[in-house]
User: Which sequence fits this backbone?
């Protein structure tokens, strides 16, 4: 994804653009862990892992830093096997 630049409000809020939230399955209203790395980078991690395909928080596993639920794993496997 191309870098996105956003201005922080005076109260410290930053809005994550809708296209980024849609692409990565990030719903509003969830809790996030905020960490500041030694080099000053700030990292946001979902406190509740969600499936990037359907948005559920049920039976989600993290693969390559993104969540996928058991149901979507089955759908993805079927799509790969049957070309859908
Ligand atoms: Zn899913």
Assistant:
């Amino acid at each position: 994804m191309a870098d996105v630049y956003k201005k922080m409000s005076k109260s410290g809020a930053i809005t994550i653009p809708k296209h980024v939230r849609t692409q990565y399955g990030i719903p509003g209203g969830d809790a996030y862990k905020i960490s500041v790395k030694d080099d000053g980078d700030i990292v946001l991690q979902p406190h509740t892992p969600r499936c990037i395909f359907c948005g559920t928080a049920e039976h989600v596993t993290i693969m390559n830093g993104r969540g996928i639920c058991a149901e979507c794993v089955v759908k993805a496997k079927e799509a790969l096997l049957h070309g859908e």
